[in-house]
Automatic annotation (TrEMBL), chains A, B:
Keyword Signal in record: yes
Pfam families: Cytochrom_D1
Signal peptide: 1-26
Protein name in UniProt: Protein nirF
CDD domains: 8prop_hemeD1_NirF
Keyword match Signal: yes
UniProt keyword list: Signal
InterPro entries: Cyt_cd1_C_sf (IPR003143), Haem_d1_sf (IPR011048), Host-pathogen_enzymatic-act (IPR051200)
């Protein structure tokens, strides 16, 4: 953590400035005592310690480790549209706003009992949080963190009684709309925040137990995975009047069941990691050591690529020429790279123990990979596969860079 | 230009700090005396006055007008990977580095006689400038602005003598490679900066007088327009061994000449404005009031959409649902919007006089349009077409937002 300029003299100047002007300038020195752009910053979730490593992708350095985020055992992050603040969604229902320039927590609230993620609206004004307990979505003002609207995920059970469902797969789409799924209810809801009175639309009977979802990079197709049956639920947000359709009918725990022996499903794959490359979608099989390829024009399955283990995150390099794959326990010791033209595995890397997540730099020249049990984040050149850096981090998991602020659904 | 905090007291503090520590802290107060993220900043070229308007896309405000950029009559802009600095390429060969946080020129050199644009390498280390006079490319270190390599665009004339060609269509592609075209030579060159000794590769006889070029968003296809003949030159950068191929054989000044009366060609269209939406490319006809549509899988022409005038910039909203079109003089008083599904013109706007350029906010909720002779930049909601703001600018032309720092080829 090299700090190129000493912080103390600058802090002293801040105090002096305060005396002279009556204005608080405590912020002025910034993280390293200097102004800096926020385009090459990022955060790494340190899950065991409830802390976050603030990183610089140009110098490939950890700038600071920041504590006080609560339970980060399954955390995710969204950035404000100015790329100054990161909202960290914690498992304990905590919503924490981190100032990337001062390296300090700007605000933290406990908004629910058990949050699994959220999204920031297209216009940057609202942050939505999806909650397991109590089930629902709460929307806050990104600036003031005041509650704007509380949407309980209330649904009717077959016996006529009502209950609240766990909310999963919260994303933002164009038009200042949030989309999310209700696990127990088997419903997909959209919440339109562009109106003075937010408008809720419910799609019922989309399938049994949607457990996660993805949004295509253009924000058009919302696709939810189903835990209770095979196939996936697709909502075309350009044509919501068409309702929710079923695609990839054999996809799921019975993944194209052809009588072959299935692996035990230790972990359902993350769907947000689906890789789109041209007309191809690359995605993780469930309980099988395969990456599947579908044609996005008709969502038909076209290829199955044999890989090291059951894939968890299948992510496309920004130029779509490679797809990088991480795997479920106990085979989470390797990362594989698939060529999107030949569909062949062209590299197998061993960054460390318990590989959890990865993130490409915005233009794809590097990839950062978290090796939880090695307490390291490893940086590779994606063209030469050369290892460029190993950075210290406490049980690192999710890695998120600020360019996500500018991408639909991220 | 509201400046929320007075600058003078802060400047005084800076001077005092210098006295106390011997360190120059002139930067510390920043543009508005406060730290800020750089994700929602942008610049508007003010062509007549050689100045730049620094803008905030969240508050929809001009933060400051900055002078001293020389001749900006055909200027373009690239951002550093930290999104702190803008490199402005001026017609007078000036290369100016603007600090978006202080609102001041960090450095300015006259690197050539007549520059038309440039690019920043994938890793952010190099800025390449294409020059008309003398013809060639110069590459500088983005941090120090020291010359790294000077590549004269020397070619052989039919009579065996050598000359230097004007360089156009400079872009960056993955692998830390710059690609550019030589107008008089009819050549496309690639300059690989990933090696200790930069490697130059020449593709000869690509067609007569390439005048501009575009790179597809994934950085794979480099497509140059030809002034001297019809058709376009396509280089597949994933397979440079295949050489340069000809596509859209009738495209150009004889644009699918079917005996119809052609409009006079006042201005060749900008190619960098090509819109990609799914498998469709939307692009300007030459000398005809049409937007053309090609299938990017085989580059065949599929549709012709009648529009208000000869298109100049044809740009896709980030979610690919709309394409926005500006027009050549004398019909540059309107902007039209095409629905990418129905291929119909769904809106015609009149932002002001002499519409020159436009830029979407990163997630596409707004568009900023420069009306040169109205001395205004007009901001619209892209969903409702409601006018949101009119900002003062001196003869505004190009508009560039910082999210470009994170996109291949932008």
């Amino acid at each position: 953590m090299p700090l190129p300029r000493p912080l103390k003299p600058l802090a002293a100047i801040g105090a002096l400035a305060l005396l002279l002007t009556g204005q608080v300038l405590a912020e002025a020195p910034g993280l390293n005592g200097e102004l800096r752009g926020t385009g090459d910053l990022g955060v790494v979730i340190e899950r065991a310690s409830g802390s976050v490593a603030l990183v610089d992708t140009t110098r490939r350095e950890v700038l600071r480790h920041i504590e006080g985020f609560g339970d980060l055992s399954h955390a995710s992050v969204k950035f404000t549209r100015d790329a100054r603040y990161a909202f960290v969604f914690g498992r304990d229902g905590g919503l924490t706003k981190l100032d990337l320039l001062t390296g300090e927590i700007a605000e933290r609230i406990l908004q629910g009992g058990n949050s699994i993620g959220g999204a920031i609206s297209q216009d940057g004004r609202f942050v939505a949080v999806g909650n397991y307990e109590p089930g629902g979505v709460k929307v806050f003002d990104t600036e003031t963190m005041e509650l704007v609207i509380d949407v309980p995920a209330t649904y009717q059970r077959p016996d006529g009684s009502t209950a609240q469902a766990k909310v999963v797969g919260v994303v933002d789409v164009p038009g200042n709309v949030f989309v999310f799924s209700l696990f127990e209810a088997g419903e997909i809801w959209t919440l339109d925040m562009s109106r003075d009175e937010p408008e809720l639309t419910k799609h019922r009977d989309v399938g049994s137990m949607p457990y996660d979802a993805l949004i295509t990079p253009n924000g058009r197709y919302y696709i939810a995975g189903l835990f209770g049956e095979d196939g996936m639920a697709l909502l075309d947000l350009w044509h919501p009047e068409n309702g929710v359709q079923r695609i990839l009918p054999d996809y799921g725990q019975n993944d194209y069941g052809q009588g072959e022996q299935r692996l035990p499903v230790y972990k359902m794959p993350h769907l947000e990691g689906w890789a789109m490359a041209g007309n191809r979608a690359f995605f993780p099989a469930v309980g099988r050591s395969e990456v599947l390829v579908a044609d996005t024009r008709d969502w038909s399955l076209t290829n199955r690529i044999a890989v090291h283990g059951q894939p968890i995150f299948v992510m496309s390099r920004p130029d779509e020429r490679q797809v990088w794959v991480t795997f479920a326990h106990p085979l989470n010791d390797k990362v594989q790279v698939i060529d999107t033209q030949t569909l062949e595995v062209i590299a197998t890397l061993e960054p460390g123990d318990s590989i959890l997540h990865k993130e490409f730099t915005p233009r794809g020249e590097h990839i950062w990979i978290s090796a939880r049990d090695s307490n390291q984040v490893v940086v590779y050149d994606t063209r030469t596969f050369e290892e460029l850096a190993r950075l210290p981090a406490e049980s690192p998991s999710g890695i998120f860079f600020t360019h996500r602020a500018h991408q639909i659904g991220l």
